[in-house]
Amino acid sequence: LQLDFWLAPRGLGHPVDVRVPFPSLQPLKAHLEANGVSYSIMIEDVQELLDQEQMEMFRGRSQMPVTTNTFNYASYHTLDEIYNFMDLLVAENPNLVSKLEIGRSTENRPLYVLKFSKGGMNRPAIWIDTGIHSREWVTQASGVWFAKQIVLDHENDAGLASILDKMDIFLEIVTNPDGFVFTQTQNRMWRKTRSRQSGSVCIGVDPNRNWDAGFGGPGASGNPCSETYHGPYANSEPEVKAIVDFVKSHGNIKAFVSIHSYSQLLLYPYGYTRTPVPDQKELHEISAKAVAALSSLYGTNYKYGSIITTIYQASGGTIDWTYNQGIKYSFTFELRDTGRYGFLLPAKQIVPTAQETWLALKVIMLHARDHLN
Amino acid sequence: AAMELPPGLSAASRAAALAAGYICYRRGGPGRGLALRALRRACAEDIDGVGRKYHLELELEDVLDKDSTVNCTAEVLYHLGNKNIAPDVQFTLERELKNADEADNVFYNRIKSLEKELVAENIPDNHGNVSPEMEPIHLLAWVASGYVIWQNSTENTKFQLAQIKHVKQVKRSDEYLEFDYKILLHEMLTQEIIPWQMTVLWHPQHGVEVTRDSRQTKEAPE
What we know:
Chain A: It is an enzyme of class 3 (hydrolase). Chain A folds into 2 domains: about 40 residues, no CATH class; about 300 residues, Zn peptidases (Aminopeptidase, 3-Layer(aba) Sandwich).
């Protein structure tokens, strides 16, 4: 019968616990009943308990880290894990880092921005956002790494220290949390927001076509089912409106960088028109320097130029709007790779990607700092 | 008249991506894949009544050995008018590619000796992982997708293989291996993710052939 005694027979009057393999259940029951031996069932299904325990253990292994030093930067994380990381970072560095809520997403998730500041009042600032397109996972992961890197380097890295002496850094790591959760639970390739569109079964607006710069023009789609749907009107998406309101009320942002993947490009405005921006020459020179710095680390090749000449015409884009607001140093990155893995970039490339990108970001930030008027 | 284009220019990079996909299809297999490393030079030439021809100088890299690169020249002719004709692609590799016979034969024998037909899903997985056993299956899809991309490209499209959703080996009585793939293609200009079915035939001595392929309808919008 292959009975497995967990409490072995000790003598008359003592209970016996036995695990019974399924095929032996009936024969054993029949035998006990025939001999007047009473029994009760303690565990209906041992395998089920084992399975549950396994799940618990797995969850326990990836339990929330208690400090940002035990956080695994070389893997992809859930929204909860990233929001937890932010709170840890603030708690560990209260004199440098604070967390702001700038709004709520369509599904009412908080939109958080980390502020890195050494003091002062409404200092000129740098804005960096990652994850506006939810499927571009290396960007949110890089944002987490940037946050930690700022904390690690803010005193011992001369360049970063000098930037923070004069400027604040704002970092929105999960710019599209609804989309991000959707990529983790339903569709890894989801790009847009998750807002309902009247008159359509299709969901979501492309948050990088929803800004008030050439809105609705060529380079975006009017079809709600399209990946580049611009939305019913500019700033219809709360995720976009929150940033617009923040930028306008802050009034002193000097550099704005929006981070995407993939293609390995550094881009400056415009996307909606072929007319070059007045500062084209300066932005082109900064891009050359930034890309050289990026490449110096691992030899990763980037191209650079205006959006419309380098990639395609795109209207209603983020940095076209920020540039037209007077934020001269407006850039978009397209991070690794060039298509071999695309959106599904292996986790082991997160840290190298973040490291090289950080070098380019520092070039842009230093230039902004050196040109404060 | 031919005009020199800076290699950053979007139209030239689309032609280069197409050429690389085509070359990979013609020369690749489960043991060897090629990817575009760099576009060095590009010219565009309008041919009256025919179409636009791009002259390209490319650098390709071996997907399994990034240090191994090969220069090549390619010409891509997009036909005027009828968009149902695939572009013409001609290419010349500067040198012969590394031999992939050993990797090919290891894969071939491994699949031939399977008791049950191979079935797999989500390659790479959501975190970008590809297990070592699935690497040749991934590479074969990469190579075969070069054909699908070539056949369906216009001057205004740039396709990449985004993911293998499902792959199933199909039993054959002859020496060929056959796989039925359901893949996702990513189109760069529209940013659409397009499901596509392709039936892929392969034999170490006979290269890769796509015998059937069709665009699938997207699943019901969520």
